[in-house]
Amino acid sequence: MKLPSIKTSLPGPKAAKLIKVDKKYVSPSYTRIYPLVADCGDGLWIRDVDGNSFLDFTAGIAVCATGHCHPKVVKAIQDQAEKLLHMSGTDFYYTPQIRLAEKLSSLASNGDHKVYFGNSGAEAVEAAFKLARWHSKRELNLAFYGAFHGRTMGALSLTASKTIQRKHYNPMLPGITHIPYPYCYRCPFHLCYPDCGTTCVRWIEDTLFRTTIPPEEVAAVFVEPIQGEGGYIVPPPEFHRELYRLMKKYDILYVVDEVQSGMGRTGKMFAMEHFDVVPDMMALAKGIASGMPLGALLAKAGIMTWDAGSHASTFGGNPLSCQAAMATIELLQESLIENANIQGKRLMDGLFTLQKTYECMGDVRGKGLMVAVEFVKDREKRTPDAQIRDRIIQQAFNKGLLLLGCGINNIRFCPALTANPDEIDVCLQIFEESVKAAGVLISKEES
Is the pTM of the predicted complex or chain greater than 0.90? Predict the structure, then answer.
């Protein structure tokens, strides 16, 4: 069983020097929470510039779906780099972009979708935002509290995750109304599932549409199948079906942000498959190209009818990224989607076992390898505990396990979909050691 190897103090001497240079020249807006200076990666393993090795359960924020430097993806990039680096798919044709669009359309709907390519998730959301207005000729939009859709101004206007992301950027784009997401562990309506009867959906029609927002003026609802940055929040099974039904009643477009949840992460190619809804538009990025910059907006063919010149991107869908995406999709379909289910269950089972012992683990949730633990001061009151979460992340780093937070008080587990049982078990072992080292209370059931 391979284990992390920490040979120096953290940061090590080489890392410390580089971090000092970074602080002088790189934007301070980046949120580095521990001093990792990565040098190379292989699968779920990262080695830093001082030779320390870490087990990576972040995958570059759910990006490296096939693991770091998967040989098949690297080969696809190398082969393409020898042929064509760039030709701007907005003005010219080239095979990799055409083939990838065809493939994505077949994955979404047996060929009934068209694809717009950008460089990131934010660009995919921006494209959806613009296309929704272009198609519907309506100006209002709905989004959710806790949502993260990106940091460009349109995507940021839809975002409602943390105030720091919006501070000093007001006014946002007008016409966006945020509504409660079905966060059952902390129900905004103070109800309990399943007795609530999807009040979170009924409230939209019974209150919002009746009092303040004319539904006939709403272009689209923007929603994550499972909220990512907001806390890896999994909605009830019927939520999306009921919300989709309501939106269709008023001819409102259903736009799904699959940037973090898509490309096999939840044990389905797209997370919306868990909820039996085919959205009008779907934004993809992160895991789509195993680390190469690529974003894609998929829209039903009858919706993506905007005129030539209505929207474009110089670098979007560049040949290297498209070939990396084709290799990624092939690997996902071969085995990695199924592996996400198998290893996700192993991870969840292990976390549920630990939850019985540690009082601070208030909730464990997720699908596939999109898993989170929510930390609380006590389980009865469910008071969020961000401090213990942060201490655990730091302890894990010092022990060679890379984790990231999400939401106010959650740790997310989003490793590469190549994770094997030994790597899951090592993660669980180090995670428990980190919980203990953070000085948490043993649960009342076990004490």
Answer: yes
